[in-house]
Amino acid sequence: MSKKLVIANWKMNPSSVKEAQVVFKSTITSAKGLKNVDVVVCPPFPYVNIKNDLKTKKVYLGAQNVSSESSGAYTGEVSASILSSSKVSHVIIGHSERRVMGETNSVVNKKIQQALKAKLAVVLCVGESVRDTHGEYLGFIKQQLHECLQSVSKAQMAHIIIAYEPIWAISSNGGREAIPDEFTEVRIFIRKILSDMYDAKCAHATKVLYGGSVGPEDVSGFLVEGGADGVLVGHNSLIPKKFAAILHICNTK
Ligand code: PGA
């Protein structure tokens, strides 16, 4: 049984430090004693100190975004080195909610380069907005991988995690939920692309996660039938009971 990776994407929630501490504390409690799961919490930037405040080694800290520049006059941006000096170990890059704000594959690529330089683990999000019957969505994902990973070396791929998040399955988009078979198809496809870009060993070693409305009721399907190396959880990562259930299921699958 391989160790699963669970990323909690809090997005722009909760609305106060106090609430963030409550959710973070309950995440620490839920993660206690789970040997087969690594947990990464990605809070909004101003909350990154909660890990230091609550002194946990079990839960890793992630960010939801990073600047494509290294330093300087970029008002409102946060650089990769600021993140790594704040004990952030992971960063989500290319989330669809950022791509709709204008983040292109080339910007995502620049952000990845910055993150790798600062020794952050990158959670690269890919995924289509619609599933057509001709398989064009696969071409879309292929292009995302090629352009986002441009100039990323085989050695650097050890620090890249791919999260397949079909936009239509993300809870805030209100669409239908994905089924494990849909994930399986794309997981195999992603590994084929990585194998062509690098080699089979690298493709096999790269973690591929599923994200999009993951909850306690369907997480097992994505792990067991879908073969996911873990999950990226949005709204349910803020609901302590549900997130605890997701972590416990991941720990046993
Ligand atoms: P969701 O969000 O679990 O609320 O669908 C996932 C994500 O957007 O990362």
Offer a few descriptive terms:
253 residues; alpha/beta; TIM Barrel; 8-stranded parallel beta barrel; 10 helices; 39% helix; 16% strand; globular; binds 2-phosphoglycolic acid
Would you write up a description of this structure?
- The chain has helices at 17-31, 50-54, 80-85, 96-99, 105-117, 136-148, 180-197, 200-205, 219-224, 240-252; strands spanning 4-9, 37-42, 59-63, 90-93, 121-126, 160-164, 208-211, 230-233.
- With 253 residues, it is α/β, with parallel strands linked by helices.
- It has an 8-stranded parallel β-barrel, surrounded by 5 helices.
- Helix 6 (136-148) crosses helix 7 (180-197).
- The longest helix has 18 residues, at 180-197.
- The radius of gyration is 17 Å and the shape is globular.
- The structure holds 2-phosphoglycolic acid.
- Residues 9, 165, 170-171, 211-214, 232-235 line the site of 2-phosphoglycolic acid.
Lay out the secondary structure.
Elements: E1 4-9, H1 17-31, E2 37-42, H2 50-54, E3 59-63, H3 80-85, E4 90-93, H4 96-99, H5 105-117, E5 121-126, H6 136-148, E6 160-164, H7 180-197, H8 200-205, E7 208-211, H9 219-224, E8 230-233, H10 240-252
Parallel strand pairs: 1-2, 1-8, 2-3, 3-4, 4-5, 5-6, 6-7, 7-8
Helix pairs in contact: 1-10, 6-7
Bound molecules: 2-phosphoglycolic acid (PGA).
